[in-house]
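question for whoever is on the cluster today: can someone run the full assembly for these? two chains, 458 residues total. i dont have access anymore since they changed the login thing
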Amino acid sequence: MPISSADLVARLKKGDLRAASRLMSRAESNDDETLSSLGAIYRAAGRAHIVGLTGVPGSGKSTLVSKLVETIRKDGRRVGVIAIDPSSPFSGGAILGDRIRMTNLVMDEGVFIRSMATRGSTGGLARSALTAVDILDTVGFDVIIIETVGVGQDEVEIAKASHSTLVVSAPGLGDDVQAIKAGILEIADIHVVSKCDRSDSNRTITDLKIMLAMGVNIAIKDRGGKPLWQVPVVGTSSETGEGIDTLIATLDRHRDVHRTTELGEERLRNIAEYRTFKTAEDLLRSQFYKSTNKRIQDVVEQIARRELDPFTASNDLLKKIAF
Amino acid sequence: MSLPIRVLLAKVGLDGHDRGVKVVARTLRDAGMDVIYTGLHRTPEEVVNAAVQEDVDILGVSLLSGAHMTICPKIMRLLKDKDAEDTIVVVGGVVPDEDVIPLRDMGVKELLLQDTTPKEIVARLEKLVQERGPR
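^ ran it for u. tokens below:
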């Protein structure tokens, strides 16, 4: 007989890491018992500093995470990591390989790493990533880093879900026009240029700084017009360790600005709004699949022959969802 | 929608050959499973820590070095210490016939040795998870 989720939550609140890892697995199913447990966990969470980390594939995200965690650990803070990799669009399976670059952390009791697959959700986040964050928060981790799947240019959900968003760029991946495009570069609270041991990294740092200076709102200001935060560009090298301390100090400063000013409240409200929409969307989607899957099969033939259109059909199907 | 089976594939000790385990990883992915690979030269402690944090259904240990009778008992003991006895342990690679029964006796649920086809590996892992039931 499997242990009840409520019992697991009780163990979680006492700091039991085994309960944490089991709850993360259960969180992926949508049954009522689990949902109510997740609610209890959400209400108990709220202390940790949640850091989102994103960037194009190959920009050095996982290696940077392992350096960051190693360095944050020196002052005793406990760090959780949620590492997300893509699922195959064909089989639904995934190879989760971020751990390979974090082997230095495995034996540290103050570090918890969980790998996740995107499993059909877009935006660079796995569906249950944020519940995993709540679980790590409740069990007592001080900093939680979400490493997104290596995203392209438009997967920006991480910024809606984290307290501080790091966008990692690597030298040699594009010119300054890439930098002024919309999307991923706009969501950064802190820009990181990785691989700074490379000679062309200065160029990337300069391009980013120019891009930021072109923006009208160079600094985020409070209601009285006082500047609260200016998006910095920090160069790091996971090879030499250069810039890692600066990056952590910058992250802590960003956290403090949010904890002590109106920016923080606004961000927390935005995160709450995003999560509520997202959760509702997930529930709706799974309900839709559950109750309409067979009926979709009935109409696809007609739609393929253009006797029926997807707009009318989905409207009808939505009306028939059984709750 | 049922959740994918989660598998941790591990290379433990002084064994530098991972072509096989990578083929298995790919096979399991194509069968719809979530596969976490540890990389080479891990210790039993590292592997068990990863298995606990990842809460995998299956821990697959790939061994071509002949060290299975040293490494497997350690892994089984560590899983017990960490309250993760319900992890299904399977061994793949090269194991002499006379070691098969001792390994099963210590709790290794399945041995997938060199002649096992990819299809058979998938089928046997799916069966093991099904037999275990929900947890």
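summary bc i know u wont read the tokens: The interface with chain A takes residues 1, 3-4, 6, 25-26, 28-39, 42, 45-46, 49-50, 52-55, 82-84, 134-135 of chain B (CB under 8 Å). Strands of chain B lie at 6-11, 34-37, 58-63, 88-93, 110-113.
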